[in-house]
UniProtKB/TrEMBL annotation:
GO terms for molecular function: carboxy-lyase activity; hydrolase activity. Gene3D superfamilies: Metal-dependent hydrolases. This is Amidohydrolase. The keyword Cell inner membrane does not apply. One of its GO terms (cellular component) is cytoplasm. Keywords: Hydrolase, Lyase. The keyword Heme does not apply. Residues 21-345 form the Amidohydrolase-related domain. GO terms for biological process: secondary metabolic process. InterPro entries: ACMSD, Amidohydro-rel, Metal_Hydrolase.
Length: 348
């Protein structure tokens, strides 16, 4: 097979600059699908997902995912795609379809262990270019610390979570031990929603994704901010999809915090100040929004993200970043310098 032509952005590594790092890329783990198939609760979860997305979206999703399976399972295909994009390093996380927050304690434990081990094995095929994230059972807070520790033991950088679990928001006090352990260990926590609780209101025109994902990001981050979680725990938390609607509408949160005693009761500072304690990927699909994200969060808090290899991602994430017309220093920070420091790639 002919090697792909080098992408212009790949020059970063050759010139001694920080590598280009994509922090939002997924791996598909057929072992997990086989594990949960036919278990009580699985069919109901699939039915809920179908209602939330609607038949038209499902008709597109199926072929789209099947066509991309090699890109998510074969490391050689992944590395070739990275070369074509000019990406030196990917932070690989399980497809959010593997969360399975419906599962009982025993099944959830098996899912997380398998996800951690299989993701680590996938990344071990190219240890200088692939870093990985595992899973924790968000529906069983009492087991999240042990699942996080297991992920770190596999050599993973941290774990991926959704915006909520059934009946629990991320502000739930039951999650305090997990946040404390993540802060203590320096583990990366990648906040990537899967499913939106607006349910059938978003079941047409792929609103379940285009409106649902940024909504879930904004809700989840607001729970972390207003509850004081970020006051208590210095987390390495990356929000997918640029943090959704929150960064560009944070002024409304600041106003409520200042004007209302109920809004300001849980966190110590203006909500907008917490954006500088979080990390955000660059996947916002609009150069003007990306510039605003850099303005409100800081260029040191935005990381390159592609959502590889899904159709809602960026096929050329570096070109999407350049379209924002950032200063060269800010562009280099987002392109890879920030993620290199966050993931300690110099010692990987």
């Amino acid at each position: 097979m002919t090697a792909p032509a080098p992408h212009p952005a790949a020059a970063g590594r050759r010139t001694g600059a920080a590598p280009t790092v994509d922090v939002h890329a997924h791996v598909l783990l057929p072992e997990i699908d086989a594990l949960v198939a036919g278990l009580p609760g699985h069919a109901e979860a699939r039915e809920l997902d179908a209602r939330r997305n609607g038949p038209a979206a499902l008709a597109v999703n199926g072929p789209m995912v099947r066509e991309r399976v090699p890109r998510m399972t074969d490391p050689a295909v992944r590395l070739a795609a990275m070369d074509a994009q000019g990406v030196d390093v990917q932070l690989v996380s399980p497809s959010p379809s593997h969360y399975h927050y419906w599962a009982d304690e025993d099944t959830a434990g098996k899912v997380c262990r398998l996800a951690n081990e299989a993701t680590a094995a996938h990344c071990a095929s190219a240890p200088g270019r692939l870093r990985g994230l595992g899973l924790v059972p968000l529906q069983h807070p009492q087991h999240m610390v042990s699942a996080l520790d297991h992920a770190l033991e596999q050599g993973l950088a941290g774990v991926e979570i959704s915006s909520h679990a059934p009946g629990r928001e991320l502000s739930d006090p039951a999650y305090e031990p997990f946040w404390a352990r993540a802060a203590q260990t320096g583990a990366v926590v990648f906040l990537h929603p899967f499913g939106c609780t607006l349910d059938e209101r978003l079941d047409r025109w792929y609103l379940s994704n285009t409106v649902g994902q940024p909504t879930e990001n904004a809700v989840a981050l607001s729970h972390l901010i207003f509850s004081g979680v970020l006051d208590r725990h210095p987390l390495k938390l990356i929000a997918a999809h640029g943090g959704g609607y929150l960064p560009t509408h944070i002024g409304r949160s600041d106003h409520a915090w200042s004007a209302r005693s109920d809004a300001g009761a849980g966190c110590a500072q203006l909500p907008s100040s917490y954006l500088k304690r979080l990390y955000f990927d660059s996947l916002v699909h609009d150069p003007h929004v990306l510039r605003e994200l850099v303005r409100v969060a800081g260029a040191d808090r935005v990381l390159l993200g592609s959502d590889y290899p899904f159709d809602m991602g960026a096929d050329d994430p570096v070109a999407a970043l350049r379209a924002a017309r950032l200063s060269e220093d800010d562009l280099d920070a987002v392109r890879g310098r920030n993620a290199s420091a966050l993931l300690d790639l110099t010692h990987a």
